[in-house]
């Protein structure tokens, strides 16, 4: 991990119909860092991801990627600049195989027409990238399995493989453990750990506190649209304001 910030948000704010959703949030994430984003329901975590990824435009403030202001850039332009994102809801094509799903994502990155071929040439560039992505998330043995019949845990891994096929330098994971059976959580967090270890910068919204605290370098705590704390897991756990935000629940 270097100290060079790869993602910076400064004085980010979003007001909708008079309601303040995000309130003056500033933070920066270093190259190769893994940052967890936690906070009670409705705290603004997903909205923060929406502002970073370009799904929403802030009322004020800026988002910069590798020192370049991308605040007014489209989602696609940010993706081309190296920002990748998963959503809380699944973004898979259930009737296509795991390999075909990742292959489509790879085709988008490689350029040219996207097409779904039942028998793609096995060694074209997109297939090669897709197979590597599936191997990286431990789904190599499921390449011909239809995405729709995979377990929730494997679907999440497949979404990560699709993201990897677009070769992002910064990855936003929005509640990757949502809906995943408890027995699959450890395997999925191993995959996320590996993705991070391979040098990518990762931001992750996650409600499973034990998972977050065990994976990340720092934790950002959102509360009522504000950034309450952003520090190491130990420092955040000891922070009184954070404890209060969780209504006295022990973290
Ligand atoms: N487009 C919108 N219009 C109006 N209010 C919105 C909009 N998007 C989000 N909000 C409100 O902003 C607040 C923050 O929502 P957000 O989904 O970012 O919270 P969250 O921390 O991700 O919550 P959760 O953990 O439940 O997913 C909520 O009160 C939500 O109702």
From TrEMBL:
Boundaries of every ABC transporter domain copy: 7-249
Record keywords: ATP-binding, Nucleotide-binding, Transport
Top-level taxonomic group: Bacteria
Classification via SUPFAM superfamilies: P-loop containing nucleoside triphosphate hydrolases (SSF52540)
InterPro entries listed in its UniProt record: AAA+_ATPase (IPR003593), ABC_AA/LPS_Transport (IPR051120), ABC_transporter-like_ATP-bd (IPR003439), ABC_transporter-like_CS (IPR017871), BCA_ABC_TP_C (IPR032823), P-loop_NTPase (IPR027417)
One function term, GO molecular function aspect: ATP binding
PANTHER family: ABC TRANSPORTER ATP-BINDING PROTEIN, CONSERVED COMPONENT OF ABC TRANSPORTER FOR NATURAL AMINO ACIDS-RELATED
Stated name of the protein: ABC transporter ATP-binding protein
